[in-house]
Amino acid sequence: MRPAGLDRALERFDEALARLAEARPFAKSRYQGEVFTIATELMDSDAGMAALYDRAHLFDGAGVFHEGGWADPEKLLPHLVSFGLRGQGIYPIVEILSELRMLAIARGRYDSPVDAESAESFLLKVVGHNLDLLVAEPTEETRMRPAAYERAHRLFALLESELTLRGLGVELVAEIRMLAAQRPIQVSRMRSMILHVGDIVDGGELDSVRGDLEPYLRAAHGRSLLSPSGNVEPRVYRELLSKASTDALREEASCLAEALRSTGITHPNHAVLLRTLTRKEPSLVGDALGLNDVGRAELSQNEEFALQLIRLAVYPETVDSIYGLAQVLERSLLSRPTVAGGLRRLVDLAIEPTARRSLVSREARDAGLSANAILLAGALSVLGQPLGVGQGQSPTCQAARGISLWAQHAPNMLLDLIVSAARDGVVELDFEGLRIASNQIEGGVAGGVFDDTLDPVSMVLVPHLDRLYDELMRRASLRGEDPHRWVNPALYGRWVQAGFVSAIDVITGRVTGYAGFIRKFFATHHSSYNDGNDLVYPNPVGILVTDVHGSLLGPHAVSLQRIDRSPDGELRAYFFNPNNEGRQDWGFGVKPTVSGEGERHGESSLPFAAFASRLYAYHYNPYEEGDGYAVPAEEVAAVEEMARKSWGRSYAWTE
Question: Which listed site, 13, 117, 296, 369, has its alpha carbon 20 to 30 Å from 450?
């Protein structure tokens, strides 16, 4: 659909471009601003972006880039484009116009000192350096600047439609591998990317990586002996299974197990298979789930209940819960009476209207699924994948962090909270002797607007947790210290350590006592200085997220899961980041990894000092504090330097 007002905006842009072209060189700067302003408006639609591309061959002649850093296309460097696209102010707009100009050169639309082949090579490198913009994964930065990132995504969609992605195969497969390594609960975006890249492969453009991509394509397409192409509809696949021999079913089970183990990705037909096995060959369910010895023992001990859960919760529309169910069995959770009881309560729970609408709206209404089935499937996913919980596009990292913590260490409590929110429409907690009920307070960090792509448990719980967190922060806001000292234990429970320290004085807003702040972190968390005390529970810490330039984006809640040595012996901080993407570039070489450094599925990690450089608040056990004085001054100074040159630029420091 053509956006309203597009034609008039294009007229204004053409008029502004003409005025710029007519201006004398010394006066062009007066007219560039108008061009950039109208271009910004046009970039907010696909049609507008395409229209700018149609005019890109005019940019150089008119002086769009006159006397700026983009003036000479021969001097542009592809690895620097990321900085421009993620910059502030007018820089992302000029960068997009520059890429549109380069695309026009690549397509031979006008003569330039840069030849078409070099221009295309440049753009392919730009895409390779910015695959996150091609995939459009939500991050902390995209949440804070949605319009800017939507324009960048729109540009990359245009680049993809105009260019062949031959040569980017290795990068695309690596991107898929890293996304899969994080094992998110919600995999629809990743599945779409795999299928999209698969189409490129089928087009003959990425033959060199076909083998590396194959496990992901097999999983996403549901390919198997009975469905070799992956194009068999669930209804037809069910008929094939009904006639299949035991050996054929065993082969199908093996295909499902391989998909779960290697990718964590499932296809609707996998749900059909698992449901069929509960009827025809229950002995193959463990094979299909790819269970380890612990999981098989758990399944054997609770077979009837496990088969019941499959029949009640695993459908083509809830197929992603299969991976969660497998992990629930390997965590031996069904043997816990409180967990088993909590799951059974969800089956016939009387779900209140608001929660029911949230749940059912997630699925096709003609699928005939009950809200109970969707919620039960969601509970299996969260209990099986505590580090796969994501906050989506909502600023609700605190709530996501709580759901993850409870799923790890208090699954019965989490199930009680789910029941309370879904049945009664309320979550209650105690704060310093007072009972607070979520249905009696307004507000919330998200302002009542939540991402409808959250997992089912988050859809039900997060609105309540968000209001409670906001209310607790309000009640503790005038105590002269960071309110999280009191809020975190009240919100999350007894798993939060009593000690707390913040690097920022809430009264003055200044960074105060930073060297001591870092020494205490070393003394309570670094194995060389804390007498060898390991973390027992995740530590809810506050970090200051920075962009690729190292500039402050804002505070963010993560959970420090553990401090451990990487395979090559480096001490690293392993943490859960609920923002859906654990590989953000935080600038100046501080770039978390999600695989290859000893990370477990769902963890991000950084070298200990690099992680410390982005901390601003953390909890600690005062009974397990070691010798902060023993930390070498140069180590503390190195962390402080990393902090000062990044987020520290936005604060005044007390020396």
Answer: 369
